Amino acid sequence: MQINANELRTVLNRVVAKHKELKTEGFSLESCRSMIALMDTDGTGHLNLQEFKHLWNKIKKWKLVFTHFDTDKSSTISSFEMRNALTEAGFQLNNQLYDIICMRYANEHMEMDFDSYISCLVRLEGMFRAFRAFDKDGDGIIKLNVFEVSNLDSNQLYCTPLWLLSSANAGLEQTGLIMSY
Ligand SMILES: [Ca+2]
Ligand SMILES: [Ca+2]
Hints:
mainly alpha; 8 helices; about 60% helix; binds calcium ion; hydrolase
């Protein structure tokens, strides 16, 4: 079995349509492509059964976090609720990074619907993974030279300004991403 982004989109949208506690206008093809990029460990450009299961378990876990932290039962996650949700999902962000993430993924009312929330977590997961790969001594700080920056793929490149921004303006203890795992 090999799943492409279109098929993944169909499956996900069919499932979320059944859940009234998850407000969404449906997953975009772009966010399904990002999910495949995140989980495609053997580099086929598709998800095999194992990779799909791995993604599915993540989404299930993130869905539980979503419903648990949607404390006002709006079926969306507010930027206020998101802070606790991210911590529960294992992402410790400094304030600056947190604000950037909310600005990027929340709507004008500072609410994220389910697909934006999942896209946000997929992006963070990819970002943390890339960060860990660079952070060889595990001190939560990375230094990239210009060649490493220019060799980052587009997914990682999106994250780079966040790293640079957080390291340029924050104290040493907040440099880069301080991670909880
Ligand atoms: Ca694959
Ligand atoms: Ca809510």
